[in-house]
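It is worth pausing here to work through a concrete case rather than discussing structure prediction in the abstract. The textbook approach is simple: state the sequence, then state the predicted structure, then interpret. We follow exactly that order.
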Amino acid sequence: MATARSTDKKAGPLRTAGRTVGRALHLPFTGTARSIRRATHAHGAGESGLGKLIELHAVNGAGDVMITVALASTVFFSVPTDQARGRVALYLAITMAPFTLLAPVIGPLLDRMPHGRRAAMAGAMLARALLALTMSGAVATGGLELYPAALGVLVASKAYGVVRSAVVPRLLPPRISLVKANSRVTLAGLLATAAAAPIGAGLQHVGPQWPLYGAFCVFVAGTFLAFTLDHKVDSAKGEGKAHLVVHGARKPGLRTVGASVQNGLIANAALRSLSGFLIFFLAFLLREHPLAGQSAAVSLGVVGVSAGVGNALGTAAGSLLRSRGPEVIIVMALTAALGAAVCAAAFFSGVLMAVLGATAGFTQALAKLSLDAMLQRDVPEEVRTSAFARSETVLQMAWVFGGAIGIVLPLNGVVGMSVAAGLLAVGAATSVRGLLSSARRGTPHPRVA
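Step two, the predicted structure:
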């Protein structure tokens, strides 16, 4: 009996020490999870269901960046520049044709399946999970079979983005405007991308297929998470269809709700085309002519980080400017981007390229949030969800258009920056006057706080 008691006394401190060590090891994970949950569910987002959408978008960003890491190493860095340009051109050519068809298809398809939005997002996640697994066998060799799978990943990613844009208004908490809601969703995706990128790079060192295995696991988790979204996501109560092309005047659409939305969409398309252009043009330019004293990978990293930081700052600034006139914000964003592009063309240098990347990221994020505000303000409630889907499709096509221009240009920095300035100048010439006129006249629709 005495021996048993002695053993219990000795085991007691050991058990206590074990529990203490276990809590110490467990705390960073549980504490981080609780902190993330508090941030995503703040200001009523947990009660409305927006918090889970924010978390789903973070998962989406993490999975996409792992696939990007795997493809970049195979399609871009592993072959000579001329061959890389051919591969990327093929990649973009494959993606341009489907988007030309998907622009008039995705929106109407979503209109016809309002009760299946959770299933649509889950399907986009599952499709990318399976395609990532498929690509893992071809990524090491870079064979042509990689491109159809990469096409499927891109289409599924953009389809998810369109559905997500359409869903946000349904999950809007009473205390959060649409601008702030979209800002929080976008920022979550950016933070998840930044966190997952080094993980994907680490997996790349293990083997070229390992980032794709990581993406598979992330997207499988996203598939299940999509079905946990609030049932309001699948509600179609009070909704109608929005049309980019109006036949007659009976049905409201993006061209019938005022000049602000039209001009805002044009300005955003110019900024989105600049983003696509810079990604592809600078990728090849910095590979052949890296920043002074740096490797091509480091040079691309500097410009990429600049653009990412600018995008994050623009997203954060959108929350602060949500009660200001969105037309004026878009004009300021477009003017700032144009000024940065003109300076980069006139005084071309590595520093100005990084500045242009940061400015492009900042202005694109801020202008998109302002466009969202105009859609909320000017588009009737019964067609707002469809309008978000249609506008996002147009912006995705503008990105592909800009990327195509970036691929075919000669690797001359001054020429490239001049073309970038030209893209923005066209957008400014066709939208700024209309936006300022709309801002001066005001709108018959109430502004959102």
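Step three, interpretation. Residues 115 and 234 are 4 Å apart (CA to CA). The chain is about 80% helix and 0% strand.
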